[in-house]
Amino acid sequence: QVQLQESGPGLVKPSETLSLTCIVSGGSISGYYWSWIRQPPGKGLEWIGYIYIGYFNSETIRYNPSLKSRVTISAETPKNQVSLQLTSVTAADTAKYYCARHPVVAAFAHGFDYWGQGTLVTVSS
Amino acid sequence: QSALTQPPSASGSPGQSVTISCTGTSSDVGAYNSVCWYQQHPGKAPKVIIYEFTKRPSGVPDRFSGSKSGNTASLTVSGLQAEDEADYYCSSYAGSDNLVFGGGTKLTVL
Protein backbone atom coordinates (compact mmCIF):
# COMPACT_ATOMS: atom_id res chain seq x y z
CA GLN A 1 0.00 0.00 0.00
CA VAL A 2 1.40 3.37 -1.02
CA GLN A 3 1.76 5.79 1.86
CA LEU A 4 2.74 9.45 1.79
CA GLN A 5 4.08 11.35 4.80
CA GLU A 6 4.60 15.09 4.76
CA SER A 7 6.99 16.73 7.19
CA GLY A 8 8.50 20.11 7.89
CA PRO A 9 8.37 23.09 10.24
CA GLY A 10 4.94 23.90 11.56
CA LEU A 11 5.79 27.58 11.97
CA VAL A 12 7.49 29.84 9.46
CA LYS A 13 8.17 33.55 9.81
CA PRO A 14 6.84 36.03 7.26
CA SER A 15 9.19 36.66 4.30
CA GLU A 16 11.03 33.38 4.95
CA THR A 17 10.95 30.15 2.94
CA LEU A 18 8.60 27.27 3.65
CA SER A 19 10.21 23.87 3.05
CA LEU A 20 8.36 20.57 3.18
CA THR A 21 9.20 16.99 2.34
CA CYS A 22 6.92 14.14 1.31
CA ILE A 23 8.36 10.66 1.86
CA VAL A 24 6.71 7.94 -0.18
CA SER A 25 6.66 4.32 1.00
CA GLY A 26 5.18 1.20 -0.50
CA GLY A 27 6.06 2.15 -4.05
CA SER A 28 8.49 4.08 -6.20
CA ILE A 29 8.06 7.74 -7.02
CA SER A 30 9.20 6.95 -10.56
CA GLY A 31 6.46 6.69 -13.11
CA TYR A 32 3.93 8.90 -11.37
CA TYR A 33 2.97 12.51 -10.96
CA TRP A 34 3.34 13.99 -7.46
CA SER A 35 1.46 17.14 -6.61
CA TRP A 36 1.44 19.54 -3.71
CA ILE A 37 -1.98 20.86 -2.72
CA ARG A 38 -2.81 23.21 0.12
CA GLN A 39 -5.88 24.07 2.14
CA PRO A 40 -6.09 27.16 4.35
CA PRO A 41 -7.94 26.51 7.62
CA GLY A 42 -11.66 26.28 6.94
CA LYS A 43 -11.20 26.93 3.24
CA GLY A 44 -10.94 25.10 -0.04
CA LEU A 45 -8.18 23.31 -1.91
CA GLU A 46 -5.53 24.93 -4.09
CA TRP A 47 -3.21 23.02 -6.42
CA ILE A 48 0.37 24.23 -6.08
CA GLY A 49 2.22 22.16 -8.68
CA TYR A 50 3.50 18.76 -9.68
CA ILE A 51 6.63 16.85 -10.55
CA TYR A 52 6.72 13.80 -12.79
CA ILE A 53 9.58 11.39 -12.35
CA GLY A 54 10.38 9.40 -15.45
CA TYR A 55 12.06 6.04 -15.35
CA PHE A 56 15.30 7.41 -16.78
CA ASN A 57 15.55 10.19 -14.21
CA SER A 58 13.75 12.60 -16.50
CA GLU A 59 11.58 15.12 -14.72
CA THR A 60 8.67 17.30 -15.72
CA ILE A 61 7.63 20.09 -13.36
CA ARG A 62 4.63 22.40 -13.60
CA TYR A 63 3.33 25.08 -11.26
CA ASN A 64 0.09 26.92 -10.60
CA PRO A 65 0.55 30.22 -12.47
CA SER A 66 -0.56 32.17 -9.39
CA LEU A 67 2.31 30.73 -7.33
CA LYS A 68 4.90 30.04 -10.00
CA SER A 69 7.24 32.87 -9.06
CA ARG A 70 7.64 31.57 -5.48
CA VAL A 71 7.44 27.77 -5.79
CA THR A 72 10.03 25.08 -6.37
CA ILE A 73 9.16 21.38 -6.43
CA SER A 74 11.92 18.80 -6.57
CA ALA A 75 12.51 15.11 -6.00
CA GLU A 76 15.22 12.83 -4.67
CA THR A 77 14.67 9.47 -6.29
CA PRO A 78 17.13 7.51 -4.09
CA LYS A 79 15.28 8.76 -1.01
CA ASN A 80 11.87 8.28 -2.66
CA GLN A 81 10.80 11.72 -1.64
CA VAL A 82 9.40 14.90 -3.12
CA SER A 83 9.97 18.39 -1.75
CA LEU A 84 8.28 21.78 -1.81
CA GLN A 85 9.78 25.19 -1.29
CA LEU A 86 7.69 28.35 -1.15
CA THR A 87 9.55 31.62 -0.78
CA SER A 88 8.56 35.01 0.67
CA VAL A 89 5.68 33.58 2.66
CA THR A 90 2.92 35.68 4.19
CA ALA A 91 -0.01 34.91 6.47
CA ALA A 92 -1.98 34.01 3.34
CA ASP A 93 0.26 30.97 2.94
CA THR A 94 -0.94 29.52 6.24
CA ALA A 95 -2.51 26.20 5.30
CA LYS A 96 -2.42 22.44 5.57
CA TYR A 97 -0.10 21.22 2.84
CA TYR A 98 -0.75 17.86 1.22
CA CYS A 99 1.27 15.81 -1.17
CA ALA A 100 -0.72 13.56 -3.46
CA ARG A 101 -0.11 11.10 -6.26
CA HIS A 102 -1.86 11.03 -9.60
CA PRO A 103 -1.52 8.43 -12.30
CA VAL A 104 -0.02 9.14 -15.69
CA VAL A 105 -3.24 10.18 -17.35
CA ALA A 106 -3.55 13.43 -19.24
CA ALA A 107 -5.18 16.48 -17.75
CA PHE A 108 -5.39 15.17 -14.17
CA ALA A 109 -8.35 13.19 -15.47
CA HIS A 110 -8.18 10.37 -12.93
CA GLY A 111 -7.66 12.61 -9.95
CA PHE A 112 -5.37 12.09 -6.98
CA ASP A 113 -5.47 8.49 -5.81
CA TYR A 114 -3.13 8.66 -2.80
CA TRP A 115 -2.78 11.52 -0.33
CA GLY A 116 -0.64 12.20 2.69
CA GLN A 117 -2.36 13.21 5.91
CA GLY A 118 -1.18 16.78 5.41
CA THR A 119 0.96 19.05 7.53
CA LEU A 120 -0.21 22.38 8.93
CA VAL A 121 2.11 25.31 8.33
CA THR A 122 1.43 28.57 10.10
CA VAL A 123 3.10 31.76 8.93
CA SER A 124 3.56 34.07 11.88
CA SER A 125 6.23 36.10 13.57
CA GLN B 1 -12.29 33.39 -5.10
CA SER B 2 -12.20 29.82 -6.42
CA ALA B 3 -12.00 29.14 -10.12
CA LEU B 4 -14.99 26.76 -10.04
CA THR B 5 -18.24 27.76 -8.35
CA GLN B 6 -19.96 25.44 -5.90
CA PRO B 7 -22.80 26.16 -3.49
CA PRO B 8 -21.38 26.54 0.01
CA SER B 9 -23.87 24.13 1.51
CA ALA B 10 -26.36 21.38 0.70
CA SER B 11 -28.50 19.15 2.84
CA GLY B 12 -30.88 16.25 2.78
CA SER B 13 -32.50 13.68 5.00
CA PRO B 14 -31.37 10.06 5.15
CA GLY B 15 -32.53 8.17 2.09
CA GLN B 16 -33.03 11.28 -0.01
CA SER B 17 -30.96 12.43 -2.97
CA VAL B 18 -28.87 15.58 -3.11
CA THR B 19 -27.17 17.18 -6.12
CA ILE B 20 -24.17 19.51 -5.88
CA SER B 21 -23.20 21.66 -8.84
CA CYS B 22 -19.79 22.81 -10.01
CA THR B 23 -19.83 25.62 -12.54
CA GLY B 24 -16.81 26.56 -14.60
CA THR B 25 -16.23 27.98 -18.05
CA SER B 26 -15.60 26.85 -21.59
CA SER B 27 -11.89 26.92 -20.73
CA ASP B 28 -12.06 24.31 -17.99
CA VAL B 29 -15.16 22.24 -17.19
CA GLY B 30 -16.57 22.71 -20.66
CA ALA B 31 -13.32 21.99 -22.44
CA TYR B 32 -11.90 18.83 -20.94
CA ASN B 33 -13.15 15.44 -19.84
CA SER B 34 -11.36 15.81 -16.53
CA VAL B 35 -13.72 16.85 -13.75
CA CYS B 36 -13.20 14.97 -10.50
CA TRP B 37 -15.11 15.05 -7.25
CA TYR B 38 -13.52 14.62 -3.84
CA GLN B 39 -15.06 13.83 -0.47
CA GLN B 40 -13.34 15.19 2.61
CA HIS B 41 -14.31 14.30 6.16
CA PRO B 42 -13.16 16.60 8.99
CA GLY B 43 -9.47 16.31 9.67
CA LYS B 44 -8.93 13.87 6.81
CA ALA B 45 -7.37 14.10 3.39
CA PRO B 46 -9.71 14.32 0.40
CA LYS B 47 -10.71 11.12 -1.37
CA VAL B 48 -11.56 10.94 -5.06
CA ILE B 49 -15.08 9.60 -5.60
CA ILE B 50 -15.73 10.56 -9.22
CA TYR B 51 -13.30 11.07 -12.11
CA GLU B 52 -13.77 12.02 -15.76
CA PHE B 53 -17.20 13.47 -14.83
CA THR B 54 -18.99 10.16 -14.36
CA LYS B 55 -16.63 7.32 -13.42
CA ARG B 56 -16.29 5.85 -9.95
CA PRO B 57 -13.03 4.45 -8.60
CA SER B 58 -13.15 0.94 -7.26
CA GLY B 59 -14.76 0.81 -3.85
CA VAL B 60 -16.86 3.95 -4.18
CA PRO B 61 -20.57 3.15 -3.68
CA ASP B 62 -22.81 3.52 -6.70
CA ARG B 63 -24.90 5.95 -4.65
CA PHE B 64 -22.42 8.54 -5.92
CA SER B 65 -22.86 9.60 -9.53
CA GLY B 66 -21.61 12.41 -11.71
CA SER B 67 -22.89 14.22 -14.76
CA LYS B 68 -22.08 17.12 -17.04
CA SER B 69 -24.07 19.74 -18.88
CA GLY B 70 -22.17 22.41 -20.74
CA ASN B 71 -19.85 24.19 -18.34
CA THR B 72 -21.43 22.64 -15.25
CA ALA B 73 -20.63 19.35 -13.58
CA SER B 74 -22.86 17.81 -10.96
CA LEU B 75 -22.48 15.26 -8.20
CA THR B 76 -25.55 13.38 -7.03
CA VAL B 77 -25.62 11.43 -3.80
CA SER B 78 -28.59 9.07 -3.71
CA GLY B 79 -29.92 7.26 -0.67
CA LEU B 80 -28.17 9.66 1.69
CA GLN B 81 -26.46 8.07 4.65
CA ALA B 82 -25.05 9.65 7.78
CA GLU B 83 -21.50 8.92 6.69
CA ASP B 84 -22.00 11.01 3.53
CA GLU B 85 -21.86 14.15 5.67
CA ALA B 86 -18.63 15.76 4.52
CA ASP B 87 -17.19 18.50 2.36
CA TYR B 88 -17.21 17.90 -1.39
CA TYR B 89 -14.86 19.52 -3.88
CA CYS B 90 -14.79 19.46 -7.65
CA SER B 91 -11.68 19.94 -9.75
CA SER B 92 -11.06 20.47 -13.43
CA TYR B 93 -8.12 20.72 -15.76
CA ALA B 94 -7.89 24.31 -16.99
CA GLY B 95 -5.34 23.91 -19.77
CA SER B 96 -1.65 24.79 -19.78
CA ASP B 97 -0.90 22.18 -17.11
CA ASN B 98 -3.09 23.94 -14.58
CA LEU B 99 -5.66 22.42 -12.23
CA VAL B 100 -8.45 24.35 -10.53
CA PHE B 101 -10.71 23.41 -7.64
CA GLY B 102 -14.15 24.51 -6.58
CA GLY B 103 -14.67 26.28 -3.28
CA GLY B 104 -16.27 23.24 -1.70
CA THR B 105 -19.76 22.29 -0.56
CA LYS B 106 -20.58 21.22 2.97
CA LEU B 107 -23.14 18.42 2.81
CA THR B 108 -25.28 18.01 5.90
CA VAL B 109 -27.39 14.92 6.49
CA LEU B 110 -30.36 16.11 8.51
Give an overview of the whole structure.
The complex is a heterodimer of chains A (125) and B (110). The mean pLDDT of chain A is 95. In chain A, strands 2, 4, 5, 6, 9, 10 and 11 form a seven-stranded mixed β-sheet that branches. Chain A is mainly beta. Chain A has strands at residues 3-7, 11-12, 18-25, 33-39, 46-53, 59-63, 71-76, 81-86, 95-102, 114-115, 119-123. Helices cover 0% and strands 50% of the residues of chain A. Chain A has no helices and eleven strands. Chain A is globular and about 40 Å long. With 110 residues, chain B is mostly beta strands. Chain B contains no helices and nine strands. Chain B has strands at 9-12, 18-23, 36-40, 47-50, 64-69, 72-77, 86-93, 99-101, 105-109. Chains A and B meet through loops of A and strand 7 and strand 8 of B.
Q: What's the story with the biggest beta sheet of chain A?
A: 7 strands, mixed
Q: In percent terms, what proportion of residues of chain A is strand?
A: over 45%
Going by helix content, strand content and strand pairing, the class of chain B is mainly beta
Mean pLDDT of chain A: 95
**What is the molecular shape of chain B?**
globular
Topology as H/E string of chain A? EEEEEEEEEEE
Radius of gyration of chain A: 14 Å
Order of helices and strands of chain B: EEEEEEEEE
Number of strand segments of chain B: 9
Percent of residues of chain A in helical segments?
A: under 10%
Query: Stretches of chain A where pLDDT falls below 50 for ≥5 residues?
Result: none
Summarize the main sheet of chain B.
6 strands, mixed
For this entry, what is the oligomeric state of its chains?
A: heterodimer
Strand content of chain B: 35-45%
Percent helix range of chain B? under 10%
Distance between the termini of chain A: 39 Å
